[in-house]
């Protein structure tokens, strides 16, 4: 892992599959923008902070997914730093019960074992109406980009660097990803369109890249997600259950499902595309032989 200087006091920690930005308040204090995965990034993050004699004075989170809040709890405990995040995202990670509601497919014991470290109490809720916040004495601009998650935000630092978070994915991720996730794909696509109007000197993607211009990347992202939905639509050649679609898609896209955990993860990813296809009127839900099935709509 290395630290990359972007502009002014804005830097990025370069992990293998993640860019983790931070804003340097002083020679000894930083504000982290997201915190990474606990198992994969905790040791490297701690080593960096200790080697550079840095303390975390605040954590500003784009959303409450495991790879963005994974280290928030122990960082808050170690440094006593406040955490700010969108209100709806903060509610998700406020308790094990709320995590159970979000990860509905998992039983409670798996919620505790796999996601329990995500439970944190946010100190500052970012409301949907807020576009500017003063956090730990530093002014940040907020761009609301819901879709990838319920309350996802992008954050612009005082150096005119916008951290896009997961509202866009980089070229390398598009080349390797089978089914990129979105909580509500229709909203995610609208947020991507919104990014056309954002003007910054630099842009940082969590997964992954640093850009001076993202217009072409936005277009590529929109096409990529819509194309994935169309590929799923092609699989539905007759009325099919969700599991039938998943099975056919895993074969056509060569998605290797080897564990129950991987199955549940792929199921969550597929469901957002199925909901999008139903929402846009391309498929409909029917009851056939006592089973719920999806079928293409006739025009």
Describe this structure in words.
The structure is a single chain. Helices cover 38% and strands 25% of the residues. The model has no long low-confidence stretch (mean pLDDT 95). Strand 14 and strand 15 (291-296) form a beta hairpin. The chain is built from 11 helices and 15 strands. The chain has 2 domains: 2-225, Metallo-beta-lactamase, Chain A (4-Layer Sandwich), CATH 3.60.15; 236-296, no CATH class. It is globular and about 65 Å long. The strands form 3 sheets. A 7-stranded mixed beta sheet has the order 1-2-3-4-5-6-7. Helix 8 (185-194) packs antiparallel against helix 9.
For the biggest sheet, the summary is: 7 strands, mixed
Strand content: 25-35%
The N- and C-terminal alpha carbons lie at a distance of 53 Å
Number of helices: 11
Assign the structural class, choosing from mainly alpha, mainly beta, alpha/beta, alpha+beta, or little secondary structure: alpha/beta
Portion in helices: 25-40%
* The CATH topology of the largest domain: Metallo-beta-lactamase, Chain A
Strand order, sheet with most strands: 1-2-3-4-5-6-7
CATH architecture of the largest domain: 4-Layer Sandwich
Question: Mean of residue pLDDT?
Answer: 95
The CATH class of the largest domain, by name, is: Alpha Beta
CATH superfamily of the largest domain: Ribonuclease Z/Hydroxyacylglutathione hydrolase-like
Total domain count? 2
Which stretches are low in confidence, meaning pLDDT under 50 for 5 or more residues running? none
Number of E-state strands: 15
| CA gyration radius, whole angstroms | 20 Å
The topology string of helices and strands comes to EEEEHEHHEHHHEEEEEHHEEHHHEE
Can you tell me the overall shape?
Answer: globular
């Amino acid at each position: 892992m290395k630290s990359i200087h972007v502009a002014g006091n804005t830097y990025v920690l370069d992990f293998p599959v993640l860019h983790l930005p931070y804003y340097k308040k002083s020679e000894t204090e930083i504000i982290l923008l997201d915190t990474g995965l606990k198992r994969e990034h905790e040791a490297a993050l701690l080593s960096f902070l200790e080697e550079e004699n840095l303390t975390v004075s605040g954590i500003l989170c784009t959303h409450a997914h495991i790879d963005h809040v994974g280290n928030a709890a122990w960082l808050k405990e170690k440094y006593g730093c406040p955490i700010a995040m969108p209100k709806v995202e903060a509610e998700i990670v406020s308790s094990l019960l709320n995590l159970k509601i979000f990860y509905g497919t998992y039983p409670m014991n798996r919620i505790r074992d796999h996601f329990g470290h995500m439970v944190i109490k946010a100190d500052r809720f970012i409301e949907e109406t807020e576009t500017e916040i003063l956090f730990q004495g530093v002014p940040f601009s907020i761009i609301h980009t819901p879709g990838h998650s319920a309350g996802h935000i992008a954050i612009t630092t005082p150096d005119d660097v916008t951290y896009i978070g997961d509202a866009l994915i980089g070229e390398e991720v598009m080349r390797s990803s089978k089914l990129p996730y979105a909580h509500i794909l229709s909203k995610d696509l609208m947020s991507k369109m919104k990014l056309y109007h954002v003007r910054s000197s630099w842009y940082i993607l969590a997964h992954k890249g640093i850009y001076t211009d993202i217009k072409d990347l936005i277009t590529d992202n929109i096409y990529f997600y819509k194309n994935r939905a169309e590929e799923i639509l092609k699989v539905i050649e007759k009325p099919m259950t969700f599991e039938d679609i998943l099975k056919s898609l895993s074969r056509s896209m060569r998605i290797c499902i080897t564990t129950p955990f991987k199955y549940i993860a792929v199921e969550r990813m597929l469901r957002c595309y199925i909901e999008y296809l139903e929402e846009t009127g391309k498929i409909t839900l029917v009851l056939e032989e006592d089973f719920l099935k999806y079928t293409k709509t006739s025009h």
